[in-house]
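Exercise (ungraded).
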Amino acid sequence: MHAETIDLYPTRHTGKPEWQDRMDPVIHSSDPPIPPLSPEMVEDFGEKGYMVLPELYNTAEVAVFRAEIDRIRTDPSVRSSEKTICEPGSESVRSVFAIHRDNTLFSRVARDKRIAGIARYLLGGDVYIHQSRLNFKPGFTGKEFYWHSDFETWHAEDGMPRMRALSCSILLTRNDVSNGPLMLIPGSHRHFISCVGKTPENHYRESLKKQEYGVPDHKSLVDLSDRYGIDTVTGPPGTAVFFDCNIMHGSNSNITPLPRVNLFYVFNQTGNIVEDFLLTRHPRPDFIAERTNFAPLDIQREQFD
Amino acid sequence: MHAETIDLYPTRHTGKPEWQDRMDPVIHSSDPPIPPLSPEMVEDFGEKGYMVLPELYNTAEVAVFRAEIDRIRTDPSVRSSEKTICEPGSESVRSVFAIHRDNTLFSRVARDKRIAGIARYLLGGDVYIHQSRLNFKPGFTGKEFYWHSDFETWHAEDGMPRMRALSCSILLTRNDVSNGPLMLIPGSHRHFISCVGKTPENHYRESLKKQEYGVPDHKSLVDLSDRYGIDTVTGPPGTAVFFDCNIMHGSNSNITPLPRVNLFYVFNQTGNIVEDFLLTRHPRPDFIAERTNFAPLDIQREQFD
């Protein structure tokens, strides 16, 4: 499908971090925006690299999602699956991957027009799921997730060639300033900051718990936050957050009693499928990064209540 | 000075946590408030258990404090002192204790009318410093500090008899929602929640890094946050936060590049000095909890710019 053989975003090759400008658009479509997007919202996404849509899913739908997640988290076959990642030093389920494949309900969510339609519009063409997961950040002991650009990881570890992907997170609990919400550096998506150090083999299990590779340097983070500041995403259950694949983001720990639960889908444009020549290591497992099925999502309006 | 021999707030004696009502006032004075306090502010402190006074110290004064802290943190004799606590797993200075004794500038701050005068008013009489420290929560790696009531610790580990003490924290960096600010449960100061488990000897060094004893149970925290919610203290440098000795508080980690630096003074009323019979272990060192010098502070208006 691709004839490219040039790595436009080299990373993990040199001993020092390097900045380069983004070589891809953020908004890949020139058509008029589809509802509920307005031209202003699209422009804002282009500038900031993220947008928040409160109450994209209603209370009844959130309840349906939560019930299914509670079932999944206590399902012994899920707990013992390699697709399940636990909290560091605990048996508590933190993430379950590939929910768009393994779970009937969450595969319907993946193709729901409310999120997949927006992804298709912003990415300017058909999309498929590169990665999906449910995240459960427990109360009291939820750990921080350090700053990173998803694209840097997907590029170096999965072979994603270009910046033509985005994440959609559907919040299933209230996210407020105190329970370790998503923090983003608005505007950071316009720079690609290479990371230092070779990628070790098979480190994905640890990196999903605690990142040590693909970690941006302190000076770059100081420069980014001085220049752009740090935004915090808060909202009621049912809120959806869309963010560009290259925006710098992370989250602090959560000592409050309030867990943070969300559904997480990565949409990639079908012209941007992973390429082996870009890999800095053996590819991650298929449940973390799609490597075989690039069929476009059959997007339709779904309803879950 | 005291003839009391009854422990009004038993803790760390039983196998299950117990709630009891506070047996002491929050506002110990019935005089009209002193400036800058208004009757409304005092009433609010009584209700919530804390108050925030933005810009109690001006920019120039903050700069003087910061310069002195930078000097202290790199002073080899301070770094090697037992009064200095480092970050877990790091040589980075987190806290330096007894700054009201060892440091000329910060002993003047301790008796400054702007903070000590307010403490004397709220506590209804002469005050002395039970504990002081500077806190440095670094950027990128600042760790969380779990929920606790200071009074529970001071009662069990220092022998402080009654709830007639308060903390004043002077913020020396901007505290915003993203850099691990102080979280408080407003109203929680009206309940005393006993903690479970015997206090081990000499655990103070560890507990100042990461608390494992004097830790409230999950159910009590859920009940408190359901009932009262969680407030987050933010403000520019120079802001002072006063909070009651028994309010439940803590903070999340800080992955942002922005460090959090503050000065911290605990004022205790001179009628409420520590009593050995209340101790659940050998007393903590004198630099953590004053045990000998209960002389009232000679409060005066100081200026530092």
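Further reading is listed at the end of the chapter. For now, observe: Chain B touches chain A through 26 residues (CB under 8 Å). The CA atoms of residues 137 and 260 of chain B lie 5 Å apart.
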